[in-house]
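re the bet — no i am not wrong, look at it urself. input seq straight from the record:
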Amino acid sequence: MNPESLEYTNLKPILAQYEAKGRGESIAFLSWFLENIFRLDDVSADDSICDRPNDRGIDGIYVDHTQEEIQILQGKLKQRNSSIGDLPLRELAGTITQLKNPESVQALIDGGANEELKRILTRHNIKDLISKGYMVVGLFISNQPLDQNGQEFLECHQGISVYDRNRIANEFIEIDQVGGVTGSYVFDTSYVSPMVIRTGIRATTYVLPVQALELVGMDGIDDGTLFTQNVRQSLGNTKVNKALRRSVMQPAEHENFPLYHNGVNILCHSAHLDEEHEKLRITNYVVVNGAQSITTFRRAKSALSPDLRVLAKIIQIDDPDLSKKITINSNNQNAIKARDLKSNNEIQLRLREEFSHVEGGAYDLEIKRGQGIDAAKTVVTNEEAGRLLLAFDLMSPESCHQIYKVFDDRYADIFARPEVNAHRVIFLYLLNKKVQNVTESINYRPLAKYGLTRFFLLSVVSELIRANNDTLVYYQDPSTLFFDDRLTNFMDEIESILVSIVIDLNYEVEEMGDQFDYKGDLKSPTKIKGLRNKLLRSYEKDVARGKAPLLTIVMA
């Protein structure tokens, strides 16, 4: 991404989908930042944001458990080109003093700040984390560049970081972008002679274990230049990062590190192996795989030792097309997920085969990443199918953002049941489309666009169908609807009823006002059950008064 892409007129179209959540421009920009720079999923990004008035200067809070930091977020989107001076940074420095100790956090919770801020502080256990020694830092995010005054302020205040136009552009990874560090760097080869692999005249590869202390000495780590072509630069707080940091912080584990770590890939314009002096000099280099590791090493530099080594593959190459292929392939070796392990499971294979016999084979089930799909068919991923079954059958919409549960913790509960067949999955897929249609009628836009809202409404539909003796048969066996026009008619009835239910939902949200914590309530089985019961009782009253349609047996 070029810095110019972050100018207001260029950025505005990109932010449209985030503004659709009912947010102001600066909060929409912050949401975009969290998803594209911090690499959070949409639910986690929404959960980090405080988007209501009287937020005490706090637009969001993100807890980085790897660095043991509580990051106070402040986003500013400017329409006219200007710069970031020291004034907004001084204001942010004042803002973070509101969380200087557990007592001040409690004062915020007890005071007059908006309810959403209080809920974020409570949900993330900020007071307890500060008691445990987590540092409170400020992150200022803006589409304008930092000026000299701002830079001088940062040099004196280590608790503030700035993501300005230039830094964001650097950290927004574009695989086609050419870049890296201009200059030379020398690796020590006295520990072991590198293995040299020559690929014709196009590339020469040197494979050797290098010290982490050497890797953190390379230029371009702090500003992201070193990682220009790395497609995974900042993934946030992941299990991999936690494990990596734990190993770094344990000196006894340093000699074992090459056994655990996949290594780093470095491309360079030239490489010269000096066997006499036992040195490998590289020139004009870029890391295409290993940004997270090197960044973690840099942050934990004081804990590194000469024993901590990483396998490095250093490739001398001057072929842009081949460099791009190396970059793509080295970053496509994704960790094996629980879903991958289940892709050849008999349950999944049977379910996919059943799809070919329903609705004339118009649908296909994707059970494996990279699976060949007929473009003429409607594709349902088994990941989406699992989430729909989790919400509709198991009545656990609060867990649908935790994808790992679908193929791990609750796999058998979700898929290993005789009633889970192609008819059922397609039935739920179509129900979900109706739910998504009516969410557009939810007045409170952040709720309408929240990742768990559709699963909550799907659980309401499930309760509705099962509570009616006439329609319970469709819950038990949806295949009875796949004849004539029954399925279409039933889906139309459901959508009509959902319109009425959403009207009541709008009323409930308006009545609760600031007390409605959709981010917390939609993850609480108790709160979900209470709200679902309210909506269904209201619907029953509307049916009795003739204001809402009754769900009935569908006739052909």
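see?? The longest strand covers residues 264-274. told u. also Residues 3-171 form a domain with the Trna Endonuclease; Chain: A, domain 1 fold (CATH 3.40.1350). so pay up
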